[in-house]
Amino acid sequence: MTDILMPALSPTMEEGTLSKWLVKAGDTVSAGDVIAEIETDKATMEVEAVDEGVIEAILIDAGTEGVKVNTPIARLAGGESASPAPAKSEAPTVQAVTEDKPAEAAAPAKPELRDPEFPEGTPMVKITVRDALRDAMAEEMRRDEKVFLMGEEVAQYQGAYKVSRGLLEEFGDRRVIDTPITEMGFAGVGAGAAMAGLKPIIEFMTFNFAMQAIDHILNSSAKTLYMSGGQIKSSIVYRGPNGAAARVGAQHSQDYSAWYANIPGLKVVAPYDAADAKGLLKAAIRDPNPVVFLEHEMMYGLEFEIPAVEDFVLPIGKAKIQREGKDVTIVAHSRMVGFALKAAEQLAAEGIEAEVVNLRTLRPLDTDTVIASVKKTNRLVTVEEGWGPCGVGAEIAARVTADAFDDLDAPPARVHQEDVPMPYAANLEALTVPSVEKIIAAVKQVSYK
Amino acid sequence: MARAAKASDGTQGSNSTPSVNRNTSKDDLLKYYREMLLIRRFEERAGQLYGMGLIGGFCHLYIGQEAVAVGMESASIDGDQVITGYRDHGHMLAAGMDPKEVMAELTGRIGGSSKGKGGSMHMFDIETGFFGGHGIVGAQVSLGTGLAFADFYKQNGNVSYTYFGDGAANQGQVYESFNMAKLWKLPVVYVIENNEYAMGTSLARASATTELYMRGASFGIPGEQVDGMDVFAVYEAGLRASEHARSGNGPYILEMKTYRYRGHSMSDPAKYRTKEEVDDVKKNRDPIDHIKTMIEQAGVTEDELKVIDNEIKAIVLEAVEFAQTSPEPDPSELYTDVYLEA
């Protein structure tokens, strides 16, 4: 007898919905038969039987949500094959109905400080980063006819990461446009449409692919207002997941924060949670300037609370104190804010109170908030996913040492990706990226502990 | 003057198009003459100012190619857009930009169309629908396709005239753009100004196929080869292409066979071609001489032409004067136009 287990559809999936059984108790199945469909927040997958035999019992009903990976979902009685089914549990093989990418499920535990913009007591709702981004686009598309979304798989496929789910149905194929795989071409089309007064949202399946289009982001969008003496505006958002996902190797795991943050004429936004994602994407779409909006694949599936207000817009260029503390300032952006918060929690147990600054925007950089924090804590640790040399942390350290040198009790420390291309092997990958442990070590270094 | 034209309907090989009857009024002739002469005289002065150190950096002159910009402009209507690469002065003048503003931009003065912050390769004029002036070879092709996307999105009946050279024709994004333009039936006319040399490299040395009007064939985009030294041939082809694009049939390619008389830029001695080759084009194919002959045949006197010549000279001299007296941008302009207020 074999238990059929809820399969993991990616290395980081933790649960899913058992949407449909294609077999019932008593049915005979052969290896390779599709027995069920399982839905994650991104894709529907078919589950195949690995062994032959008779379905003895269905253990989880169709339609059950939140089924944890490795939960037994059915029991298979051994068939008449010479080799009896092994007595151990095994997960069936799965095959993607729609392509899927890994996502992370480990949410940070701590509730965060309210944004200063919203008064205490504002009602909150829970939403994933993915849906917050979708809602931001939908709300802005309802508000402004000139806004449209263009990119690979954004329409019929509902988004490679399901960020644009439902937009085609609401706005039609005039405003939600599937492109060929042609990054340089469609980035240029978007940049040209923006010059003509439209407000494109250009989605890159990941920012790794945007390197093919970076000429248009810089030369065609960022510089045109200046080169035209203020005549040609480019109100355009280039968005998509940036940074390292999981186990996708060197070419698919790069953080471009420092690259874009280097360019005058661009605004560069890197949201951490759902509130950042929604409030800042709405602001980015409204902004009359070109905005590079760096999302994070590993954050898409995470749920956070956001204020339940009608039109939730956050200011671009303002950092947020995500956690208050008096002993050390940890500056981070995007997914690394979560790492910094975890580190701060563990440090608190050791009596070190870390203040976590969520940059939210990389250009313009909110140096004032960082420096005010350092003046209080006298210690600085920067955290980023990208490489260290000429990175975001290097820039922050330079500004802090220039403007708050006398307030520093220790040289700033930087946590960043190791100076190598991203390795594939799980152990090497883990060694390469920033970690909570590395942040804690850096904090202790600047605290002389 | 019989000149061979070739065409591809985008689904099969080349064939010839019948020549079009030309019933051109004297006024039309003089208009073309005036506009082409303005470009020629303007560019000659620009070359002179460059030599005097008043224009810096790169300066790519349009001399020899005047019939392309002027003929195509005549085929456009209000609201249409023009976008091109770095050899852009002729297009700006043809689009109707003020020669003073263009020349002052070349000298980097506040009176320039971009307040002196763009330079020769980066000029724009929203009012006349001129969207640059782009220094990255081939980038304007995707951008021009985007202008056409905006026309399509707004359903405004306008067309984007997207110019590029024989050199840019080998850039990958040109074909990415062709694909999307045809896929979505965008109203764009791609005008390839084939002046035979991409900087110092002749077309034959850089292109596996030299019939550039056929470059859209694999996307089903019709193309024509046009005598780009004959302003009427350009105009007529421009009308056909515009009509095609404007009526929802998608993109159209015009390969303009033309020639630049000067080097690629001011610093190019153009050793890659013989003096005889250049002289031969100047003597036998010059677009302004061509129309001048027609004008004389139409019974316009030498004195009438002289009046126009003097007018043009005065306009150009006024531009030169303005470009030297307009002040340099105030240092406070350094930090303007980087961002718009959100």
TrEMBL record, chain A:
Its cofactor is thiamine diphosphate; (R)-lipoate. It catalyses: N(6)-[(R)-lipoyl]-L-lysyl-[protein] + pyruvate + H(+) = N(6)-[(R)-S(8)-acetyldihydrolipoyl]-L-lysyl-[protein] + CO2. It comes from the Bacteria. Residues 78-92 have a biased composition (Low complexity). Residues 78-121 are annotated as: Disordered. It comes from Asticcacaulis endophyticus. Its EC number is 1.2.4.1. The keyword Oxidoreductase applies. Transmembrane segments: none annotated. The keyword Transport does not apply. Heterodimer of an alpha and a beta chain. This is Pyruvate dehydrogenase E1 component subunit beta. Keywords: Lipoyl, Oxidoreductase, Pyruvate, Thiamine pyrophosphate. Residues 1-77 form the Lipoyl-binding domain. GO terms for biological process: pyruvate decarboxylation to acetyl-CoA. CDD domains: lipoyl_domain (cd06849), TPP_PYR_E1-PDHc-beta_like (cd07036).
From TrEMBL, chain B:
Coiled coil: none annotated. Residues 1-24 are annotated as: Disordered. GO terms for molecular function: pyruvate dehydrogenase (acetyl-transferring) activity. It comes from the Bacteria. Signal peptide: none annotated. Keywords: Oxidoreductase, Pyruvate, Thiamine pyrophosphate. The pyruvate dehydrogenase complex catalyzes the overall conversion of pyruvate to acetyl-CoA and CO(2). It contains multiple copies of three enzymatic components: pyruvate dehydrogenase (E1), dihydrolipoamide acetyltransferase (E2) and lipoamide dehydrogenase (E3). Heterodimer of an alpha and a beta chain. This is Pyruvate dehydrogenase E1 component subunit alpha. It comes from Asticcacaulis endophyticus.
